[in-house]
């Protein structure tokens, strides 16, 4: 998997590349990430990539030409395995399912970060394959969104997390929150680790974890329960959880 990020703030993106799991994934060759500054393709001697808005309006708009040229530089020949994504509040919400789909369907992602008052609409209409939003709020630019997507997609790549089961047990890999986890000490100021987790009985531990995932999702994100495909055992656990709450 290769991920190219187009940003006016390459140092900001580079700092993301040089941290933690992403850094190790790049160094190990599991994923290739690069950042390209659209200013490199500016026709202006001052390397400006923005200009006033046709029809009037406050602020400046990013020009389309530097972005078209920047995409062409990282994607000279496009195939069905390449995807150009524009980070925009008008885009579809980014979800775990979307991260899995991008990992499954594409080998190369190009993430375009907007800035200023926005970007010339021709980028959205003629250059990007799709628009993605990471939430219904306003940010200074698309850099944070690009890093969110790059991080989430990279975690899908086998080997990146080391333990092949790590990604599949994360919250939202399926629409359910992760179960509570504990480490030493066993007893901290009277707050003890659940006995089942130190029992060594793997089947009971797995059952406890599933039940607590369901409990946590029901309490914290009940909206996700509508998306979850429940097994007979899940339904039994949910009944137990509801009975326990009624007795409390």
From TrEMBL:
Subcellular location field: Cytoplasm
Enzyme Commission number: 2.1.1.228
Keywords: Cytoplasm, Methyltransferase, S-adenosyl-L-methionine, Transferase, tRNA processing
Pfam families according to UniProt: tRNA_m1G_MT
Catalytic activity: guanosine(37) in tRNA + S-adenosyl-L-methionine = N(1)-methylguanosine(37) in tRNA + S-adenosyl-L-homocysteine + H(+)
Domain of life: Bacteria
GO CC aspect terms: cytosol
GO BP field: tRNA N1-guanine methylation
Class of this enzyme: transferase
Main location group: cytoplasm
SUPFAM superfamilies: alpha/beta knot
Binding residues for S-adenosyl-L-methionine: 114, 134-139
GO molecular function, one term: tRNA (guanine(37)-N1)-methyltransferase activity
Family annotation (InterPro entries): Alpha/beta_knot_MTases, tRNA_m1G_MeTrfase_C_sf, tRNA_m1G_MeTrfase_TrmD, tRNA_m1G_MTases_N, tRNA_MeTrfase_TRMD/TRM10
tRNA methyltransferase TRMD/TRM10-type domain: residues covered: 1-227
Keyword DNA damage annotated: no
UniProt keyword annotation of tRNA processing present: yes
Oligomer status and interactors: Homodimer.
Family: Belongs to the RNA methyltransferase TrmD family.
PANTHER family, per database record: TRNA (GUANINE-N(1)-)-METHYLTRANSFERASE
Role played: Specifically methylates guanosine-37 in various tRNAs.
HAMAP family: TrmD
Descriptive protein name: tRNA (guanine-N(1)-)-methyltransferase
Organism: Dialister pneumosintes
